[in-house]
Amino acid sequence: MAETVTNYIDGEWIEAETGETFEVRNPADTNDVVATFQQSGAEDAERAIEAANEAREAWADTPGPERGAILNDAAKLLEERKDELTEALSREEGKTPAEAAPEVQRAIDIFYYYAQKARDYGGRVKQSSVSGRQLSTRREPLGVAALITPWNYPIAIPAWKLAPALATGNTVVFKPASLAPNVGRKLIEALDEAGIPDGVVNMVTGPGSEVGETFATHDDVHVVSFTGSSSVGHNVYASATDDEKRVQTEMGGKNPTVVMPTADVDKAIDIVGAGAFGVTGQACTATSRAIVHEEVYDEFVDGIVDYAESIEIGPGLDGADMGPQVSESELESTLEYIKIAEDEGASLETGGDRPEIDSEGYFVEPTVFSDVDSDMRIAQEEVFGPVLAVIRVGSYEEAIEVANGVPYGLSAGIVTRDLSEANRFADDVEAGVVKINEKTTGLELHVPFGGVKDSSSNTYREQGDAAIDFFTTTKTVYLNY
């Protein structure tokens, strides 16, 4: 019988007030129930907020090194359980172990990183314009932080929100995505075992319409960090800013990689293939458009088709190269976009259907479309699956126009051996992350991350020192002596 997981509120694992639960199933084998979770409601969310609010003064007064020591101990526990966490992630979200293990390691590294940041966290002394006065600044936490996270990186994204929020002295209410809450739960278990005080971290599972909405609008929540779809993110932002909360939203992408005639085409194929089909295309930074110069277009299309057809599809835990989509609705959405692309006149080069494999899962073939016009829906709207649109262009200027001609601006790449071209692209492209000669996916943890246009609220960035800025406010002190 599947394990039943409860909410974590005020240091205790408790059932939801609703008395209702929901199942999480393995997307590679829908007969496999991972666990049962609480289908919580507004009352459960309010209880978590109350616990976080009561704990916030004591946690804010806890010395930074002491807070960092707890994060460090949690990181050690996660490190000891890396294999277990990797399997748990693969089983509930569908990633292959080769994809899941680096994500788990990233969560571990993030906790270690902010454990050290907690020691350095403070302020600065400034030179006063008059004698006999000392000027200084100090960083202070905002209060209760609501963290709402997605299913596609169910341990890395919670980690990169939880760790800086806690390191800087905020208390937390956390809602993991209902499609993949299990590995996020294990983060909370590690913090609990590391000695996090009661009420400092609280986890509530359940629907965004109940739990997420309560977190975003409650008067006792002071800061909201959301990662997910653009449609939901805009609603979260509007709800949370009604009472002037600090809000950060990171949302969708329609990420291009430009391939120029100066590129090594074989390397470009590997870069685009990894960005488009890695993690089953279920990344906000996935490469969904290859914008290819006409001089190398045919060679690129032939190569990327071969790349897609070489991918072995199946359960990741059985050794396949590419796992399933996370749910039936995500699979249906991808198949619908494939049909739309065909109806609009794009040429289906490979893929486009469910594979014939012996598994009860949400699998889809890696799919490549050529002859894509930049105004087609397949080139404008986010398709959260392994689908690549290849667009022909005749010049660098046209490539930039196509790359920027979408509502999103998260990650963008170029493959070129021309240094001037690479630097022009970094200047010209409308994206928060620019990759030169590497895939659009993959981020370093100590530098800012975020997008422009509909990819972000364009308020605060995540990760590195940018996360410290987001979760704190600055107080300036004048001391006359």
Radius of gyration: 23 Å
Spell out the CATH superfamily of the largest domain.
Aldehyde Dehydrogenase, Chain A, domain 1
> Any idea what the CATH architecture of the largest domain is?
3-Layer(aba) Sandwich
The number of helical elements comes to 15
CATH topology of the largest domain: Aldehyde Dehydrogenase, Chain A, domain 1
Low-pLDDT parts are none
Strand content of the residues, in percent? Answer: 15-25%
Quote the distance from N terminus to C terminus: 69 Å
CATH class of the largest domain: Alpha Beta
Total number of β-strand segments?
A: 21
Order of strands across the main sheet: 14-15-16-13-12-18-19
Structural class: alpha/beta
User: Major beta sheet, specifics?
Assistant: 7 strands, mixed
Overall pLDDT confidence: 96
Notes on the structure:
Helix 2 (about 65-80) runs antiparallel to helix 4, helix 4 (about 95-120) packs parallel to helix 5 (about 155-165) and helix 7 (about 210-215) runs parallel beside helix 8 (about 230-240). This protein has 2 domains: about 5-250 and about 455-480, Aldehyde Dehydrogenase, Chain A, domain 1 (3-Layer(aba) Sandwich), CATH 3.40.605.10; about 255-435, Aldehyde Dehydrogenase, Chain A, domain 2, CATH 3.40.309.10. The N and C termini lie far apart (about 70 Å). Strand 10, helix 8 and strand 11 form a beta-alpha-beta unit. It is built from 15 helices and 21 strands. It has helices at about 40-60, 65-80, 80-95, 95-120, 155-165, 180-195, 210-215, 230-240, 265-275, 295-310, 330-345, 375-380, 395-405, 420-430, 465-470; strands at about 5-10, 10-15, 20-25, 30-40, 125, 135-140, 145-150, 170-175, 200-205, 225, 245-250, 255-260, 285-295, 345-350, 365-370, 385-395, 410, 410-415, 435, 450-455, 470-480. The mean pLDDT is about 95. The chain has a 7-stranded mixed β-sheet with strand order 14-15-16-13-12-18-19, sandwiched between helices. It is an alpha/beta fold and about 475 residues long.
